[in-house]
Write a structure and sequence with these properties.
The complex is a heterotrimer of chains A (92), B (602) and C (217). In chain A, helix 1 runs antiparallel to helix 2. Chain A is flat. Chain A is an all-alpha fold and 92 residues long. Chain A contains four helices and no strands. Chain A folds into two domains: 51 residues; 27 residues. Chain A is 71% helix and 0% strand. Chain B is mainly alpha-helical and 602 residues long. A two-stranded antiparallel ribbon of chain B has the order 1-2. Chain C is built from six helices and no strands. Chain C has a single domain, classed as Cytochrome c oxidase, subunit III, four-helix bundle (Four Helix Bundle (Hemerythrin (Met), subunit A), Up-down Bundle), CATH 1.20.120. The chains are: A mainly alpha (92), B mainly alpha (602), C mainly alpha (217). At the B-C interface, helix 1, helix 7 and helix 8 of B face helix 1, helix 2 and helix 5 of C.
């Protein structure tokens, strides 16, 4: 098929369930006032990026694409980290 | 038919189409043929190059003859030139607009579209053996987005308040509010124009990258691609990733000006330094966008005209990739004097010095390429040799700036202006002259007049150095950039005669370009008719007629070797095209007999 | 069609083995990543520099409504991927139905966001720095101002551009639906659906991150 190699049916509904549960978890977690702000932020970011990763790998079919595409897609990541890290240093 | 099947059949046919003759408007105006789009970019960009040059000439009038009536000044509106009984004198606000627009137009509407729009479009499909770009209609859209962007930019001269006047770098808070420059709508038009142009470049980049990855002919492996294609490929990646950051920044600045948001306005808690970081995060990859394709062109011309392979092809490729990669972590060197965290200054200094290394590798390789070559000193070669030498000077001055302590002294002086122009004019523009001259026959089927080009070259190289070399001295003596009347400072008044000298040289330099312009248009009609391969070159574009037919290659080319097999022992001539099948074993005579040592030595 | 068949029409050549349309869309999405990085990165930096200009989650912004909106967008990603799965099997009716569902859910997302904007503006939460006078949800209009001018500027710019991308996506989905209705897609010719899906999922992905950073932190 035009999409690349054939693969067994993807677990779309399972991923949807995971995304739904994670969203609920995030909203709940955000309002736990007992947790210090830093851990709150880190936990939320981790959950958000994991959700994003699920969407990219399953819904955007990265899982079944050639590894070179993974490489290409990850190129902006170091750039983003560099920009934000360097400019944040201005504040501190 | 599936997407894949369509592409396969298309390619196997080799681009042979049963095309009824296209109507004029589809063939010349809304063309999807990459060669026509390349020419469209070329004509529009050359027009803007002239405009940019005229803007510079006007600036130089003010610097050479401060506050004196300018010839022809009475024709310009009162907002730009103050009328007096003796003639019209330039207003400071207009000078600021000239500075801004000269930089903006030259960088975005001349050099970038010439290097990327012209050479990217012309060379990529031809050099990799493709029939056209991956997305021909998107290519057409890319050009037709650039045109309204250009119109908006020029229109900004005519609005109330005049054209943008905050420098091509448009620093906030000067640019965030019209209060300081007196420019309101002009600045917004500037922002809108660049946003549209950014989108044009972006879709172009998507096209170039997809084409190079997916549409190379059989046998055209990555390491058999010509360096021009490599350079344009890496440049496209830089465009893809840097332009969107600029777009975000431009939009935030536009909102600051129009809606009244507070991103960069300190009076409401905004951060002017954020603008600088965002702008230069784009801005530094931008300058590599402006030089990498020029380096690629130079490699093609130097190797061909010296009849020698490029020295160190692999290291040339790695250097291009290295420059592209390192270019992302040096942007702070434009901000050493901004008040940013000094620790960042140190890290940027180190990374900036590091980036000199791949550029130096390329320079040494160019020198080794022409060393002991069978040099044909015709005009493309002259321009390419000028590129290398002027780029060396520009690169060396860059080392001074890379050092933070030195930059404290020379930042925002004419030393920087000298550096910029040695790399952009001495570098990029000479490479553009080389490239246009070299590929002119492929585009138009005729050769440019060689004598006129040599005359243009000789005058240009001399006058250009007379203009820009002294600026190093001016900068070191403290003359600052973007200043309407430097003579107001007593310590700078002695620099007036040198400024006048530079201005006169500029007027002559601008006038000299008419030789190239004349040659360009004259040769379209009267130039000597060109063969398929007038330069005896190896790359694929020279295997098809000049100019190539729609679809480029009558059948799919197959590539057997790299692009720089000049003076190869395996060929009877001094070149060995990439698509010529290997016909005979290596020539035995050239394999030396093993020498056995005698007791006394060899 | 297998990879071998893909390249059978020409001598084997090195390449990504991802067809042009799909490769082009991925490359375009990389540029979109950089665009949102510029906007979201600026927000992060401004927030670190001037924390007093922002508030705790939920003080000004309506988190429950937006959480629901997030869920909506995720559902639309599911319907999109179902549409793609349908045409992979050659199911034309399934493709149309799921595309329609995606359009409706996507349009609802935009609708909820517009409603949210109107409510926020009514509370004084505006992008214009000088006019900012947000007092927080359910607070009287003459109460103390919470947050600062930068909050409105950054919020509307980030979510506004995301919303614009969603709206453009909905229009493109309508175009895709129109082509599907004409029967232009099949199991062998679904590139157009696939790249529409890639764009749509990307817009969802950005929102997942944006929602967390802007609404929950």
């Amino acid at each position: 098929m035009s999409t690349g190699e054939a693969h067994k049916p993807a677990p779309y509904m399972l991923v949807w369930l995971a995304l739904f549960l994670l969203t609920m978890a995030e909203v709940g977690y955000a309002f736990i006032t007992a947790i210090p702000k830093l851990w709150l932020a880190i936990g939320l970011i981790v959950m958000a990026f994991y959700k994003a990763w699920l969407v990219a790998v399953y819904y955007m079919h990265l899982k079944w694409e050639p590894k070179r595409l993974w490489l290409m897609v990850s190129i902006p990541i170091p750039l983003i980290m560099i920009l934000i890290f360097v400019v944040l240093n201005e504040i501190f | 038919m599936s997407t894949i099947e369509q592409e396969m059949v298309h390619a196997a046919e080799g681009g042979h189409h049963d095309h009824h003759e296209l109507p004029f408007i589809r063939k010349y105006i809304f063309s999807t043929d990459h060669k026509m789009i390349a020419k469209q970019f070329m004509f529009v960009s050359l027009f803007f190059l002239v405009i940019g040059g005229l803007l510079a000439a006007m600036m130089r009038w003010q610097l050479g003859y401060p506050s004196q009536p300018m010839p022809g000044g009475m024709m310009l509106p009162d907002a730009m030139m103050a009328p007096t009984p003796n003639g019209a004198i330039m207003l400071p606000e207009f000078y600021n607009s000239l500075v801004t627009m000269h930089g903006t137009i030259m960088i975005f509407f001349a050099i970038m579209p010439l290097l990327v729009g012209l050479f990217g479009n012309l060379l990529i499909p031809l050099q990799i053996g493709a029939e056209d770009m991956a997305f021909p209609r998107l290519n057409m859209i890319s050009f037709w987005l650039a045109v309204p962007a250009g119109i908006l930019m020029l229109a900004s001269f005519a609005v109330e308040g005049g054209a943008a006047g905050a420098g091509w770098t448009s620093y906030a808070p000067l640019s965030a509010s019209g209060e300081w420059t007196g420019v309101y709508l002009g600045q917004q038009l500037w922002l809108a124009s660049l946003t549209i142009l950014g989108f044009s470049s972006l879709v172009g980049a998507v096209n170039y990258i997809t084409t190079v990855i997916n549409m190379r002919a059989p046998g055209m492996t990555w390491f058999r691609m010509p360096l021009a294609t490599w350079a344009l490929f890496i440049t496209a990646i830089l465009i893809l990733l840097a332009i969107p950051v600029l777009a975000g920044a431009l939009i935030m600045l536009l909102f600051d000006q129009t809606i009244g948001t507070g991103f960069f306005r300190p009076e409401v808690g905004g951060e002017p330094l954020l603008w600088q970081h965002l702008f230069w995060f784009f801005g530094h990859p931008e300058v590599y966008i402006l030089i990498l394709p020029a380096m690629g062109i130079a490699s093609e011309v130097l190797s061909n005209r010296a009849r020698k392979p490029i020295f160190g092809y692999h290291s040339m490729v790695l250097a291009i990739i290295g420059i592209g990669f390192l270019g992302w972590i040096v942007w702070g060197h434009h901000m050493f004097m901004s008040g940013m965290n000094p620790l960042l200054g140190t890290s940027f200094m180190i990374s900036t010095m590091a980036i000199a290394v791949p550029s130096a590798i390329k320079t040494f390789n160019w020198m080794a390429t022409v060393w002991k070559g069978d040099i044909h000193l015709d005009s493309p070669m002259l321009y390419a040799l000028a590129f290398v030498s002027m780029f060396i000077i520009g690169g060396l001055s860059g080392i001074f700036m890379a050092s933070t302590p030195v930059d404290i002294y020379i930042h925002d002086t004419y030393f920087i202006v000298a550096h910029i122009h040695y790399v952009l004019f001495g570098g990029s523009l000479f490479a553009i002259f080389a490239g246009i001259t070299f590929w002119y026959p492929k585009m138009f089927g005729r050769m440019m007049n060689e004598s006129l080009n040599k005359l243009h070259f000789g005058l240009t190289i001399v006058l250009y150095n007379l203009v820009f070399w002294p600026m190093h001295n001016l900068g070191l003596q403290g003359m600052m950039r973007r200043i309407y009347d430097f003579t107001q400072y007593e310590y700078l008044a002695p620099l007036q005669p040198m400024n006048e000298f530079i201005s006169i040289s500029v007027f002559l330099l601008v006038a000299t370009q008419s030789i190239y312009a004349f040659n360009f248009f004259w040769s379209l009609f009267k130039g000597e008719k060109a063969s398929d391969n007038p330069w005896d070159s190896n790359t694929l574009e020279w295997t098809v007629p000049s100019p190539p037919p729609h679809g480029n290659f009558p059948e799919m080319p197959v590539v057997y070797r790299g692009p720089y097999e000049y003076s190869s022992p395996e060929s009877e001539t001094d070149f060995y095209p990439q698509t010529t099948p290997p016909s005979k074993p290596p020539v035995q005579d050239l394999i030396p007999e093993p020498v056995t040592p005698t007791p006394e030595g060899f | 069609m297998t990879t071998q068949a893909m390249t059978a029409g020409r001598a084997p050549m090195p390449g990504m083995k991802v067809y042009n349309l799909k490769l082009g869309m991925w490359i375009f999405l990389l540029s979109e990543v950089m665009f949102f990085t510029g906007l979201i990165g600026s927000y992060v930096i401004l927030r670190f520099a001037h924390p007093e200009q922002f508030t705790e989650p939920g003080v000004v912004l309506n988190v429950p409504l937006t959480a629901f909106n997030t869920f909506l967008l995720i559902c639309s990603s599911v319907t999109m991927v179902k549409a793609y799965a349908a045409i992979q099997q050659g199911d034309q009716q399934g493709l149309k139905n799921w595309l329609l569902a995606t359009i409706l859910i996507g349009a609802s997302f935009v609708g909820v966001q517009v409603y949210e904007y109107i409510a926020l503006v009514g509370e004084g939460f505006v992008p214009m720095a000088e006019a900012y006078h947000a007092v927080g949800r359910h607070m009287p209009h003459d109460g103390p101002v919470v947050g600062g001018q930068l909050y409105g500027s950054t919020f509307y710019t980030m979510t506004g551009f995301h919303g614009t991308h969603v709206s453009i996506g909905v229009l493109c989905l309508c175009f895709t639906y129109w082509r599907a209705a004409k029967g232009e897609y099949s199991a062998d010719n679904l590139g157009g659906v696939e790249i529409m899906g890639l764009y749509w999922h990307f817009v969802d992905l950005v929102w997942i991150i944006l929602f967390t950073i802007v609404y929950l932190i």
